[in-house]
Design goal:
By secondary structure, the protein is an alpha/beta fold. It contains 20 helices and eleven strands. The protein starts with 51 loop residues before the first strand and ends in a 10-residue tail after the last helix.
Amino acid sequence: MTILRYSVPALPLKKLIIPSNSTLFHFHFHFHTMNSIAKPSASSSSSSTTSIHQVPELDSDGTHRIADQTFRRYSSSSSSASRTGRGTAILWFRNDLRILDNEALYKAWLSSDSVLPVYCVDPRLFGTTYHFGFPKTGALRAQFLIECLADLKKNLIKYGLNLLIQHGKPEEILPSLAKAFGAHTVYAQKETCSEELNVERLVSKGLQRVALQSSSESRSNTNNPKLQLIWGTTMYHIDDLPFDSSSLPDVYTQFRKSVEAKCNIRSCIRTPTCLGPPPSIDDWGCVPSMDQLGVYSQSQNVSKGMKFVGGESAALGRVNEYFWKKDLLRIYKETRNGMLGPDYSTKFSPWLASGSLSPRFIHEEVKRYEKEREANNSTYWVLFELIWRDYFRFLSVKYGNSLFHLGGPRKVEHRWSQDKNMFEYWRDGRTGYPLIDANMKELSTTGFMSNRGRQIVCSFLVRDMGIDWRLGAEWFETCLLDYDPCSNYGNWTYGAGVGNDPREDRYFSIPKQAQTYDPEGEYVAYWLPQLRALPKDKRNFPRKSYIEQVVPLKFKTVSKHGSQDMALAARRTNFRGRK
């Protein structure tokens, strides 16, 4: 029986109110050894405690100019003459909020003479998480989604279409639209997790109840609109893998080496320059407001740190900015372990999670960069991280709902605590450990946390505090801009030692991590301004100058020679698929 993640909370945790700035990819995460020490960007060294870095830096006009240039470069010469389809096709947008490299969009155009793009504001996405009743979508991610929809609507209009925005369940909206417009097919991106799969089944059943009359009056010529699901979430296409999902390797390295040796990455779909006309509709609907989404918070605006701009135009602007304008791709591998500032990593993950950015587009841009500028370990490492993201998506196909179970795919038995007060110390950044608290403050304020930070706070919650890993996973589900169930829960199962790879066993020593990745305490001083007055070497180790530590560390001390941490490092991995 399928277990859905939409549910009434199972634990008596008190209802959590979203802090004023609390909602939220990095990308998709997993744990993996990273040996390089990040070099802070120029913006990282700023001592300002109130600075806001917009990502991308370009203003709206600049991002749309870059987007238009990119659209032209990835457009096709396909004309209406090559469009042989007839009738109306519906394009159901889900987590693929883009035009560039959207195969479902292309197939809808090709199979029809009129495309109806639809986005359903599904109330279940704004309900509560399965076990602990946290908001499924927090304020910052809701605001990001609003910006994605506004940008998608604007770009579709440029291509001769529009975006019909309807509030309600897809299984009720789509069959009704199919009947009203006589649509022969509903095209959509294929998903892999239980909630999304259940909606797909319900939509398909609803469409089967819609009878479309053909040109003949004969009853035998009635037919039903079909749901056509298109794979489009990964860099490597699932049909091109050298094994089926049930035989997917449980060790990432085996998976990576196999696909790199035996698979080709498909080219981006080239978009026709005109996708119209759409059906005649009087009211296309408005981009929803926060109130209409049912998300209530004192503020969904970022007060400090990074402010991500939603939408495909911003995504393409960030790729251009990071790869071409700032030329940061060539040093990505050396800087990716940073924690402060906008430029230590690509920051593509929020747009990848919403489908505003295609991983195949990133691949093609990396290859173009390698051809025009330089190929090195850093250019490869961006693709390496995208393969991690693919891996978690394919694992969700293999293991299904076990990714959400306490014992994970391997059904590991472990006694976890669900102490409410201890969890709230972690959630609110009040553990007494500056590195933990600073990362949790960044998460609630911006909806983002570095790859390194995610590893550290996960390890602390499950290893040092002994708290049920699902509490952490569900809180990340609430907060992360780049939330994606496959990567989020896949990484948390790895971090908790219940993942599919039985060799995984990781502990992150906070003193060692602080000494290595925040040696002068700039990161913790930024998010915990009360520490800035301390000497730099004391900011991560403030003793009585900071709040009391809520738990002792599993390993309290670090050898001057690092022998203990070298042993620990051998067992580390990292929140993967996140850039």
